[in-house]
Amino acid sequence: MTGGEIAGLIAAIAFLILVIGLVVLLRRVTKVMKEIQATVNEATRTVTVVTGDVDTLSKEVEGLLTKANVLLDDVNGKVANLDPVFQAAGDLGASVSDLNEASHNLVDKISNVGATTAKASALSRVGASALRFYRKRRQHKATTDSEVNTQQGSDL
């Protein structure tokens, strides 16, 4: 074997090792590609299922939002109907406050009348006492004058 033949044999063996390496590499790449294809297929099925579920959920959420809007409108209407009740309650509170103030004023006036009546009663008693005293004095004077007149008439 000559040097050229040995070099050719080494080149052929190197080429064979390279081809075997490429075959092994390509088999592994093919295996990985099959796994990737399986994963992509599974992801596609999952996305299809999720898309269907999302469509169903979005329709249900839309129905719930519609019902919530109707309920909110109903609540707003009922609150609007209750506004006059709260207004009436506020007016009633103001009326009760006014009545309370008027009652206080009446009690104050009655207290003042009571005090005035007490003063008038005391003055009336003083006046009655003064009148009795005056009458007694007058009667006493009249009696004294008549006794004096009687004595003067008897002296004559």
How would you sum up this structure, described in words?
- With 156 residues, the chain is an all-alpha fold.
- The chain contains one helix and no strands.
- Major beta sheet summary: none
Low-confidence residue ranges = none
* SSE order: H
User: Which structural class do you get from the secondary structure elements?
Assistant: mainly alpha
The radius of gyration is: 63 Å
Share of helix among residues? Answer: over 70%
Which shape, going by the Cα principal axes?
Answer: rod-shaped
Mean pLDDT: 86
Proportion of beta-strand residues: under 5%
Distance between the termini: 214 Å
Discrete helix count: 1
Concise description?
The chain is an all-alpha fold and 156 residues long. 98% of the residues lie in helices and 0% in strands.
Write the layout of secondary structure elements.
Layout: H1 3-155
Key terms:
156 residues, mainly alpha
